[in-house]
Amino acid sequence: MGFFLEVLIGGLMTGMLYSLVALGFVLIFKASGVFNFAQGAMVLFAALAMARFSEWIPGWLGVENLMVANILAFIIAAFLMFVVAWLIERLVLRHLVNQEGATLLMATLGIAYFIDGLGQTVFGSDIYKIDVGMPKEPVMVLQGVFEGGLLINKEDFIAALVAALLVAALALFFQKTATGRALRAVADDHQAAQSIGIPLNRIWVIVWCVAGIVALVAGIIWGSKLGVQFSLVTVALRALPVVILGGLTSVPGAIIGGLIIGVGEKVSEVYLGPLVGGGIEIWFAYMLALVFLLFRPQGLFGEKIIDRV
Amino acid sequence: MIYRENGQFKTSYAADQQIFPILQDRWAILGILAFAFIAVPLLADEYLFRAILIPFLILSLAALGVNLLVGYCGQITLGAGAFMAVGAYAAYNFFVRVDDMPLLAALLLGGATSAAVGVVFGVPSLRVRGLYLAVATLAAQFFWDWAFLRIKWFTNDSSSGSVSVSNLSVFGWDLKSPTDVYLFCLAVLVVFALLAKNMTRGAIGRQWMAIRDMDVAAEVIGIRPMYAKLSAFAVSSFFLGVAGGLWGFVHLGAWEPAAFSLDRSFQLLFMVIIGGLGSIMGSFFGAAFIVILPIFLNQMLPWLGDLVGVSISTAGVSHAEIMIFGALIVFFLIVEPHGIARLWSTAKEKLRLWPFPH
Amino acid sequence: MNMRKYALAASLAAIGLSFTLTAPVHAQAKGKQAQEQFFPVLVYRTGAYAPNGAPWANGFVDYIKLVNATGGINGVKATFEECETGYATDRSVECYERLKNKGGGATAFQSLSTGATFALTEKAPVDKIPLITAGYGRSESANGAVFTWNFPLLGTYWVGADVLIQHIAKKEGGFDKLKGKKISLVYHDSPYGKEPIPLLQERAKMHGFDLSLLPVAHPGVEQKSTWLQIRQNRPDYVLLWGWGVMNSTALKEAQATGYPREKMYGIWWAGAEPDVKDVGEAAKGYNALAMQHGAEPDAKVVKDILAKLHAKNEGTGPKDEVGSVLYMRGLISAMLGVEGVKRAQERYGKGKTMTGEQVRWGLENLDLTQQKLDAMGFAGVMRPVQTSCLDHMGSSWVRVHTWNGSKWQFSSDWYQADEKVIRPMVMHASLKYAEEKKITPRTPEQCKQ
Which pLDDT score is estimated for A241? Predict the structure, then answer.
């Protein structure tokens, strides 16, 4: 029982991180109808920027304090992500309005290649470290209840907390601010939003910026966990089943979906994996999403698809 | 002036229905075929064959398969690599487990197996659509990647999971020299391209296109979506399976599932979108673009660097390569979202009036 | 709009041209002076495995530069060209085709990827170019009678797995103590990671320990469930068969699940600086195999490179990387290739360019005695290597080294793989391969030619 709980908690915490990446997908898809495959590349780029700047800044400015260096690096990285977002909107998306989904998908893959190359050219392709002071050693709780206690990974716990906070902040931003309302209006109907004077292009830039910040936070969390390296781009692949399970247009969907996939993945690998030789979690996540889709083709919380002839 | 069909009368249905109704096109195609079958083997060197032409031919075949599904039937797939893998491993199993199995039969059986698997993985398309389907097809990709690594039977119990074949021959023709391999691939490709072209012109192709344009409307006018969609998956997977078999058997010689990874699937989708959705010709353009461009950039950049007196590191070249590659893809999608095939047809329109446009 | 059209036309034209230009660019390097020996270098300095691929490539290239700085191979200049593969098999094949005829013909290929090795194994015999896979590749290719062109010099994965079990048995106080012990293999889910499994299973049968297999999907950044399983089973030892980012992730997950690093043993590809550098203190106590060498900052050859290349700014990579584990592996791989050429020159004429076939003979009759190695600056780095027609591996000297939080330190004596275990397996697997490929293994008489 204790072990099952551990797996469950591990799954939930991983799932929370998946949600964070999935959120990046959902935000952009909602506002501009683009399925942004470059999300993984953006995570890598943001993490690389963060890692490298926090390494360089002490040398440039003579600041010794790790905290200050990290904050400065975060600001610079965030600024860089804004620039990237603006450039993507300006140079690519603006010219691809009203294209088919597949074309847009491919365009973002092209962007992904470009950002991958750019990030590694500018920042290098070694393994880099993001040290934001995350605790690495595990803690044992409830030792009286279960034999051997319940192992909680503090780092994952904090990461999940940060992810949850960010999601809450974004939800507030969407619900309570004028920009947020404008964003929702655009998401509902481009033309209607435009006709009441919402500047479409600016909204897109904002969405990409927000997605950039989400990528940065995800990058920092994953980067401090795994080290910043090219393989971070594959994190996006783990978040894909989350997006379709939750629904491409639903923020709560991304969160619930993340938790379902996270738990499903870990439980299947630990309990079913040994029976078939292991390594099943990645396809199991997709299969799980597929099963949900068979019952709800638009995802758990996606907008209902209505066909008219 | 030259490219005009004035005066070419079609006096029978057969003449009206031929693949290339314009005389000049027929000559051009014959010329290209003659060039490919006769001139290229005389001119090309081994590097060109093994590193460029053979991969180009095989991936063109795969791109054709993807185009049938994505371009003609409108079902986006990100799992094309998986069906290539199924074809390659199935062909391998037929080849080594059955005594005296001819190569061609093994490849076709591999394709047939892949078609059957394609039908199974196509079932979700009856319910799930668009980008949801695209992501769902990744399930096939990751499942088969895993299956070929884990299930020993598929790899004939090889300890490492990597398989290899050799001593290939077709009807007593040994596929040893690069020229032989090239001609074999070319012949297969020509046959399959003809097949694809005719299929898209026939009833089944029209059904696919109806489904692509609007599946509900298609259903209303009496097209069975299940039959149409699943047949598209089957045919497309068949093409992919044969291409996968060729890729493993004659191009690599020995392979592991990573040879048909997700990157391959993306690459194939790129080919059909850059080349032109719903165009046979486009598949070739796309394959040429995606196969040759990276290799060309990789060799050209150091050379250009030398020219201006800068030596670029290997890593720098590779990074620049993927950056330029990515940028060019975006650029192409912006200027011509309908692919190179559209440019081709625009050029043809222009040619009709050339050199005296209004 | 017009601008766009021109740009489009220009880029299309460029792409069209590319087709015709690729061949000439490739052909340019042909037809150089005769007295050069060309070494193709397949590298990956980009992508998921770049942190590990780059130091290897730097060491390889630095050694070739060092050879030239000290008079070449008996006067023959060693040339090289890098080709980026990104650890992908199809790009490796393209690189192979691109480089095999350059500079008067490639001396030997070293692919640094098990997947690519499998593909090139089928191509090398046709082109008559030896394939050196120092410390990787197919384990059964040690049988030179069947795998005429493969040279898994210094060690194979079966050697690695065998030594690991020997070392663990020694720790436990004898092979009989292994009975009932639990050993988990955490491996990269690819041919590379699966190579050691047959041997470990064989050993498990012999000594009665319990082997559990835990695959990790490429590239190995998601290992939570793997380590949850380890936490559940509490194995006595964990063997780590990773590459690239998978290794550091495994160590971090071990820390996060509280598995003692002292009980973890890596293969020699999981025992280098990039694997532990960003884990630092937390990887303290982690052990890995050292195939002959470990990190060797004090070796004479390293000092030579620093003095003759890096002091003049002619070095390839960053200076502080020289002498690190993977750098040394690259360096030694290059050295083996060069020594193969030297040996061939002894038979076919000193100061001449050797063909692939001649180099193959040289590699097959390699005899690097301790004296020779010491003279070349490898004192304390390597033990003797002697190959023969039937034994393409040459030696199987392995040590264990341990990360002390800031550097790798040797923590065991020299081991050698147990021939009684490995030889029958090599023979069985290679003869099966020969049967499939319809190859007649060479007889001892044929070897003498």
Answer: 92
Look at residue C22 and tell me whether its pLDDT is greater than 60.
no
State the smallest CA–CA distance between residue C409 and chain B in angstroms.
31
Q: What is the CATH number of domain C158-291+400-417?
A: 3.40.50.2300
Mean pLDDT, chain B, whole residue set? 90
The separation between the first and the last C-alpha atoms of chain B, rounded to the nearest angstrom, is 13
Which of A265, A262, A244 lies closest to A254, judged by CA? A244
Give how far Cα C266 sits from Cα of B186, C155, C188, C191, Å.
47, 15, 12, 17
- The count of other CB atoms within 10 Å of the CB of residue B47 is 22
pLDDT at residue A229 tops 70: yes
Q: How far is C272 from chain A (nearest CA, A)?
A: 13
A231: nearest CB among C221, C257, C274:
C221
Domains of chain A: which residue ranges? 2-295
Q: Pick left, alpha or beta for residue C104 (phi over 0 → left; psi -120 to 50 → alpha; otherwise beta).
A: left
Question: What does DSSP say about strands B169-170 and B173-174: parallel, antiparallel, or unpaired?
Answer: antiparallel
Average pLDDT over residues A144-172: 81
pLDDT at C24 over 50: no
* Per-residue pLDDT at C23: 45
Touching chains, C (3+ CB pairs < 8 A)? A, B
Residues C190, B149: C-beta atoms closer than 8 Å: yes
C43 touches chain B (CB under 8 A): yes
- All structural domains of chain C with their residue ranges: 33-154+297-386+426-448, 158-291+400-417
Q: Percent of chain A beyond pLDDT 70?
A: 97
Taking an 8 Å cut-off on Cβ atoms, the answer to whether B318 and C45 are in contact is yes
Quote the ipTM score.
0.90
Q: C337: distance to nearest CA of chain B, Å?
A: 21
The minimal CB distance from A240 to the residues B70, B138, B149 is found for B138
The pLDDT tens digits for B86-104 are 999 999 999 988 888 899 9
Pairing between β-strand C210-216 and β-strand C182-188 as defined by DSSP bridges: parallel
pLDDT at A183: 84
The answer as to CATH 2.40.380.10 being correct for domain C33-154+297-386+426-448 is no
Residues 6 or more apart from C137 whose CB is under 8 A from it?
C111, C114, C117, C121, C131, C150, C152, C156
> Does the beta-carbon distance from B292 to C22 stay under 8 Å?
yes
Residues 210-229 of C with CB under 8 A from A: 212-217, 219-222, 224-226, 228-229
Give the tens place of pLDDT for each residue, C283-334. 899 999 998 888 888 899 999 999 999 998 888 888 888 989 999 999 999 9
pLDDT surpasses 90 at B18 = no
For residue C32, pLDDT over 50 is answered with: no
Q: Which 8-state DSSP code applies to residue A304?
A: P
Cβ within 8 Å, pair B298-C84 = yes
Which chain A residues touch C if contact means CB-CB below 8 Å? 3, 6-7, 10, 14, 120, 125-129, 136-138, 151, 153, 155-156, 225-227, 229-232, 234-235, 238, 265-266, 269-270, 273-274, 277-279, 281-282
How far apart (Å, rounded) are the C-alpha atoms in residues C222 and A227? 12
At which residue do the structure tokens 């020229």 appear? B179
- Please name the amino acid found at residue B190: V
Residues of chain A with C-beta less than 8 angstroms from the C-beta of C248: 127, 226-227
Other CB atoms within 10 A of residue B286 CB: 31
CA distance C15 to C348: 46
Q: Do C118 and B255 touch (CB under 8 A)?
A: yes
Q: How far apart are CA C84 and CA C441, in angstroms?
A: 34
Query: CB distance from C10 to chain B under 8 Å?
Result: no
**Looking at CA atoms only, how far is residue C254 from chain A in angstroms?**
10
Name the pLDDT band for A144 (thresholds 50, 70, 90): low
Please count the other Cβ atoms lying within 10 Å of the Cβ belonging to residue C318.
Answer: 14
